[in-house]
């Protein structure tokens, strides 16, 4: 299969045009057509020679993102279910904030991490996405916003899949997103979330990037985290915390801990106290409390509102900063994997 036109970084395009007997400046023109003018066919690249357009068409293809469904929430959230070239499906979400528009992208078809409260893991991992397939989700979102003269102002890599298990493709995606000749998204306006793939937390810390890192922690100790997140059996809680300390020390950047609250499971005052004891040694961090979304295939209950605030107060009393995530698209099944799970079920009938 031909590689996708979005799979190459700017530096790779510079090498490609030279290898194909073209002038180096053509790389900038190609990038401009892809990420500024945002064309979706080779013939529209009108300032390229016919022979160069033919070379591009011969060696590359545009990403197939066939829109299966689009759900729009009353709060402005837009959730897409896209079909890929191989008939697999992924999700992409646009979220409206007071400070701009954020796009949540998917990095894998399915997920093998196996978190017991998440719909993304239903059906397991099918395959990794290429960097171009990740990039195309942002391009697609931006083209939708072009109609109203808005732009993508931030990106969260928190959709279906574990980004740190598709590490190389994720890093290529980041290089394209932040490039000044491309979409030019500021590094500090991008956040990547991991369930705790410890070796790649160290690797990411050494990348010398300004991209934000979020860790899905969801429990204050080894035993409970292993029940909720099987990945903890591969990378135990103590090892994860050491990797987080290394990240903070190496980068000097604040680290986000994501904590999904599940009624009667991990949301009690004793859990908050225990979590505070673990995290108070990391002042450059804060906890993002997430009321768990209902997933039909899972059996977790939502934490009562008052208990959420109690959990937050206990953390803050112990000098651990904590926020409560604002919900987006709760009326359109906007939690990761829900639309895909519904699609998989209907396709199997």
Automatic annotation (TrEMBL):
Q: Which UniProt keywords apply?
A: 4Fe-4S, Cytoplasm, Disulfide bond, Iron, Iron-sulfur, Metal-binding, Methyltransferase, rRNA processing, S-adenosyl-L-methionine, Transferase, tRNA processing
Cellular compartments per GO CC: cytoplasm
Protein name (Swiss-Prot/TrEMBL):
Probable dual-specificity RNA methyltransferase RlmN
Please tell me the species this chain comes from. Paenibacillus psychroresistens
- Enzyme class, top EC level, equals transferase
Q: Where on this chain does S-adenosyl-L-methionine bind?
A: 161-162, 193, 216-218, 293
InterPro entries from the UniProt entry:
Aldolase_TIM, Methyltransferase_A, RlmN_N, RNA_MTrfase_RlmN, rRNA_lsu_MTrfase_RlmN/Cfr, rSAM, rSAM_sf
- Family the entry assigns: Belongs to the radical SAM superfamily. RlmN family.
Cell location: Cytoplasm
Q: Which cofactor does it need?
A: [4Fe-4S] cluster
- Which EC number applies? 2.1.1.192
* Entry superkingdom: Bacteria
Query: Where along the chain is [4Fe-4S] cluster bound?
Result: 111, 115, 118
Q: What is the UniProt remark on how the cofactor binds and its stoichiometry?
A: Binds 1 [4Fe-4S] cluster. The cluster is coordinated with 3 cysteines and an exchangeable S-adenosyl-L-methionine.
PANTHER family attached here?
23S RRNA METHYLTRANSFERASE (PTHR30544), RADICAL SAM CORE DOMAIN-CONTAINING PROTEIN (PTHR30544:SF5)
Q: Which residues form the Radical SAM core domain?
A: 97-331
Example GO BP: tRNA methylation
Which PROSITE patterns does this UniProt record tie to the protein? RADICAL_SAM
User: What one GO molecular function would you report for this record?
Assistant: rRNA binding
Other comments? Reaction proceeds by a ping-pong mechanism involving intermediate methylation of a conserved cysteine residue.
Catalytic residues, per the record, are: 91, 336
Functional summary from the UniProt entry: Specifically methylates position 2 of adenine 2503 in 23S rRNA and position 2 of adenine 37 in tRNAs.
Task: Name the reaction it catalyses.
Answer: adenosine(37) in tRNA + 2 reduced [2Fe-2S]-[ferredoxin] + 2 S-adenosyl-L-methionine = 2-methyladenosine(37) in tRNA + 5'-deoxyadenosine + L-methionine + 2 oxidized [2Fe-2S]-[ferredoxin] + S-adenosyl-L-homocysteine; adenosine(2503) in 23S rRNA + 2 reduced [2Fe-2S]-[ferredoxin] + 2 S-adenosyl-L-methionine = 2-methyladenosine(2503) in 23S rRNA + 5'-deoxyadenosine + L-methionine + 2 oxidized [2Fe-2S]-[ferredoxin] + S-adenosyl-L-homocysteine
């Amino acid at each position: 299969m031909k590689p996708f036109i979005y799979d190459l970084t700017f530096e790779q395009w510079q090498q490609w045009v030279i290898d194909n007997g073209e002038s180096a400046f053509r790389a900038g023109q190609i990038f401009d057509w892809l990420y500024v003018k945002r064309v979706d066919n080779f013939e529209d690249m009108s300032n390229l020679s016919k022979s160069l357009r033919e070379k591009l068409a011969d060696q590359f293809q545009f990403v197939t993102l066939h829109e299966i469904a689009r759900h729009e929430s009353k709060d402005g959230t837009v959730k897409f279910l896209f079909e890929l070239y191989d008939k697999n499906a992924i999700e992409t979400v646009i979220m409206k904030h007071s400070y701009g528009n954020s796009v949540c992208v998917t990095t894998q078809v399915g997920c093998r991490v196996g978190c017991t409260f998440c719909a993304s893991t239903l059906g397991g991992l099918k395959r990794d996405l290429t960097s171009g397939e990740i990039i195309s989700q942002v391009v697609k979102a931006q083209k939708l916003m072009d109609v109203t003269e808005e732009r993508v102002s931030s990106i969260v890599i928190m959709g279906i899949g574990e980004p740190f298990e598709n590490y190389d493709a994720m890093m290529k995606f980041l290089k394209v997103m932040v490039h000044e000749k491309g979409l030019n998204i500021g590094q500090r306006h991008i956040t990547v979330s991991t369930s705790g793939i410890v070796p790649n937390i160290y690797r990411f810390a050494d990348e010398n990037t300004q991209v934000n890192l979020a860790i899905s922690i969801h429990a204050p100790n080894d035993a409970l985290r292993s029940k909720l997140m099987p990945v903890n059996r591969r990378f135990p809680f103590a090892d994860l915390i050491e990797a987080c300390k290394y990240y903070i020390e190496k980068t000097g950047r604040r680290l986000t801990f994501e904590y999904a609250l599940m009624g009667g499971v991990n949301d009690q005052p004793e859990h908050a106290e225990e979590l505070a004891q673990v995290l108070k040694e990391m002042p450059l961090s804060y906890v993002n409390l997430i009321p768990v979304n209902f997933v039909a295939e899972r059996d977790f209950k939502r934490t009562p509102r008052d208990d959420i605030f109690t959990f937050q107060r206990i953390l803050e009393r112990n000098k651990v900063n904590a926020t409560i995530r604002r919900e987006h698209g709760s009326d359109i099944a906007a939690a990761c994997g829900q639309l895909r799970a519904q699609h998989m079920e209907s396709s199997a009938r």
